Amino acid sequence: MNLSFFDQFASPCLLGIPLILLSMLFPTLLFPTPNNRWITNRLSTLQLWSIHSITKQFMNPLNKEGHKWALILTSLMILLLTINLLGLLPYTFTPTTQLSMNMALAFPLWLATLLTGLRNQPSISLGHLLPEGTPTPLIPALIMIETTSLLIRPLALGVRLTANLTAGHLLIQLISTAITTLLPIMPAVSILTASILLLLTILEVAVAMIQAYVFVLLLSLYLQENI
Questions:
Q1: 35: phi > 0 → left, psi -120 to 50 → alpha, else beta; which?
Q2: Predicted confidence band at 44 (pLDDT cuts at 50, 70, 90)?
Q3: Which residue of 12, 16, 128, 168 has the lowest C-beta tally within 10 Å?
Q4: In the chain, where are the structural domains located?
Q5: Confidence of residue 34 (pLDDT cuts 50, 70, 90)
Q6: What is 198-218 written as a DSSP string?
Q7: Which of the pair, 23 or 49, is modelled with greater confidence?
């Protein structure tokens, strides 16, 4: 029984071929294809308004050098948001519950922000490792602590997204199993549990949106430190 709870996090395969790449690319097919008209319908208008709001939110704290990252950060936000929300549907697979995928997204982007800072302003980027006014005896210890906190950032990004989505999916499955078990025995308790499941599902929708936003927001903050 315990193993079956985690079967939903196994990468789906068809004839021995992993389908995780297909599950990552499929959400992009849900967006309407742009054409030569500026506004075609309400869905396109809502899509353009959402993309504009997301881009403005991430680019406001950055200078003009950081605006080059607008396409990457906005595309990543839309991808994570779509995958997280579609993963809440029944009989679907959520790629963002895989730590390997989240690390594959977090590590290259974090490294790119770090290398950008070391190339453009190396003294300022290295100065983050040692706060101003640090007593001389504490300098070696603080440099080691700040270096460790810097190197652990991509791991924190990947683990945060994976843990929050995995915990939510497990809670939904556990409560759903309890509802089906209690229904023939205690119908009243089962109905009460179903109402709790409805509230939890609404909460998980919010968590899916918030985690996608936090992932990209932290990347933009790391970029802001290095430009």
A1: beta
A2: confident
A3: 16
A4: 50-129+137-226
A5: low
A6: HHHHHHHHHHHHHHHHHHHHH
A7: 49
3-class secondary-structure state, position 1: coil
What is each CA distance from 30 to 81, 82, 118, 169, in whole angstroms? 13, 9, 39, 23
Are residues 131 and 142 in contact, defined by beta-carbon separation less than 8 angstroms?
yes
What are 107-113's contacts with CB under 8 Å, separation 24+?
107/154, 107/158, 109/72, 109/76, 109/219, 110/153, 110/154, 110/157, 110/219, 110/222, 111/154, 113/219, 113/222, 113/223, 113/225, 113/226
Phi, psi for residue 60 in degrees, rounded to 5 = -60, -45
The conformation of residue 16, written as its DSSP 8-state character, comes to T
Dihedral sign of CA atoms 152, 61, 203, 109 in order: negative
Q: The tokens 């001389």 sit on which residue?
A: 136
Listed residue (215, 212, 200) closest to 169, CA to CA? 200
Sequence letter at residue 191: I
Residues making up the chain, counted from first to last: 227
